[in-house]
Design brief:
Bound molecules: adenosine-5'-diphosphate
Number of helices: 15
Number of domains: 3
CATH superfamily of the largest domain: ATP-grasp fold, B domain
CATH class of the largest domain: Alpha Beta
Strand content: 25-35%
Strand order of the largest sheet: 13-12-9-10-11-14-19-17
Largest sheet: 8 strands, antiparallel
CATH topology of the largest domain: D-amino Acid Aminotransferase, Chain A, domain 1
Oligomer: single chain
Length: about 450
């Protein structure tokens, strides 16, 4: 096992990884920007190194600084968390060249899955069902019109390098196609420096269902069931749960077995998530994330498996601690993303937390890096914590979530907690009747309240 792990991240996920390392007796190094000197991950780590000024490109994305921090502290591995450099193949290669282990998949797998066109082609060849669409990149207007006519409107134009819901535009009819292509291309070029586009059938009322997978890099892979992340705003997840209230046992097994076999054939190493849209009993692959996800705790709650422990084990060359037949699912878990944002407009709300009281009790987990008196810097993502609730079934989970939300106090800034208090009492949510468009329509209908 590793002796010392450097955590190339901040916030709740840095803390999450730090906790797993502590449990396994591994020393930890926190890195931080000058804006994060007072962050909890810095306080709790065995050592910490300041890696640059507030802007992420000068600190958390600064590879030379991170390498220097590894050298200074003698860290033998780096955990990238999610976001930042977690899906940067070059970073994985550079660490490798310096004999430092990147806790994640091979650079080659990161690269293939980071290009959504290549990812679709790769998993499709491994027997995973994909969304109907263009075979590869769309090179010309003529090709775009021909492809859209073949798959049928509405269509979705997407960026090959896409992420975070950017570079994605719907065309309801032929009239809208050119405009959608131009907007998506401009957005993709600005956000990713790569304007390659592809096209997919736009599904009208799917659920977003993703499967957690784990491979040992030696041809063994398992799946840990699904998470339903259909409640989204601007293609960003807001609430995630497991198991999905919209999936039956036969479909669950079918998709789990399909992806586990595909990942075994690929020789995948580490944690990964295969994302699907699910409509009328059919799964359609949209992308694979080659890292730990924000919403991984819901899977941990229903399987009892610590995903970060597994990541550390596999990266250190050990085999997975469990086999597929050892995995069983218990009860139901829901995660609410607590963002420092206005709960209606979602405008960021950084600032000082004057009073902080997290909920507790049976079945409650709060993954967060904030504390009373902490000032949330304005430079980073607005996610400040996650409330994860477990119950023996969905009903108990909802009851407990209502209670937990009513206890949660974060004063001084605005948060998304009031939105969750509404959602947990909404009849559609209580019945599990929602698709990927539900939250946007709900917010549009209540925005004047
Ligand atoms: P990103 O990497 O930017 O997050 P994804 O491909 O994962 O992009 O898609 C994000 C979200 O966009 C999905 O969860 C879904 O809500 C929506 N989406 C993506 N592809 C389609 C599609 N073909 N039809 C309808 N909605 C889609």
């Amino acid at each position: 096992m590793f002796e010392k792990v450097l955590i190339a991240n901040r916030g709740e996920i840095a803390l999450r990884i730090l906790r797993a390392c502590k449990e396994l007796g591994i020393a930890t190094v926190a890195v931080h920007s000058t804006a994060d000197s007072n962050a909890m991950h810095v306080r709790l780590a065995d050592e910490s190194v300041c890696i640059g000024p507030p802007a992420a490109r000068d600190s958390y994305l600064n590879i030379p600084s991170l390498l220097a921090a590894c050298e200074i502290t003698g860290a033998d591995a780096v955990h990238p968390g999610y976001g930042f450099l977690s899906e940067n193949a070059r970073f994985a290669e550079i660490l490798d060249a310096h004999d430092i282990t990147f806790i994640g998949p091979t650079a080659q797998h990161i690269r293939v899955m980071g290009d959504k066109i290549a990812a679709k082609q790769t998993v499709s060849a491994l027997g995973v069902p994909v969304v109907p669409g263009s075979d590869g990149a769309i090179e010309s207007e003529k090709q775009a019109y021909a492809c859209a006519a073949e798959i049928g409107y509405p269509v979705l134009v997407k960026a090959a390098a896409g992420g975070g819901g950017r570079g994605m535009k719907v065309a309801l009819s032929e009239d809208e196609l050119l405009n959608a292509m131009q907007t998506a291309r401009a957005e993709a070029s600005a956000a990713f420096g790569d304007d390659s586009l592809y096209m997919e059938k736009y599904l009208g009322k799917p659920r977003h269902i993703e499967v957690q997978v784990f491979g040992d890099g030696r041809g063994n892979a398992i799946h840990l069931g699904e998470r339903d992340c259909s409640l989204q705003r601007r293609h960003q997840k807001v609430w995630e749960e497991a198991p999905s209230p919209g999936l039956n046992a036969a479909d669950r097994k079918r998709i789990g077995d399909t992806v586990a076999t595909a990942m075994a054939d690929l020789g995948y190493r580490g944690a990964g998530t295969i994302e699907f849209l699910y409509e009328d009993g059919e799964f359609y692959f949209i992308e694979m994330n080659t890292r730990l996800q924000v919403e991984h705790p819901v899977t941990e709650m229903i399987t009892g498996i610590d995903l970060v422990h597994e990541q550390l084990r596999v990266a250190a060359g050990a085999s997975l601690s469990v086999k597929q037949e050892d995995i069983s699912f218990h009860g139901h878990a829901i995660e609410c993303r607590i963002n420092a944002e206005n709960p209606r407009t979602f405008a960021p709300s950084p600032g000082r937390i004057n009073y902080y009281h997290p909920p507790g009790g049976l079945g409650i987990r709060v993954d967060s890096g904030v504390y009373q008196g902490y000032s949330i810097p304005p430079y980073y993502d607005s996610l400040i914590g996650k409330l994860i609730v477990h119950g023996k079934n969905r009903n108990e989970c909802l009851m407990r979530l209502r209670r937990a939300l009513s206890e949660f106090v974060i004063d001084g800034i605005q948060t998304t907690i009031p939105l969750f208090s509404e959602l947990v009492n909404n009849a559609d949510i209580v019945d599990g009747r929602y698709d990927i468009h539900w939250l946007e329509s709900y917010l549009a209908g209540t925005s004047d309240d």
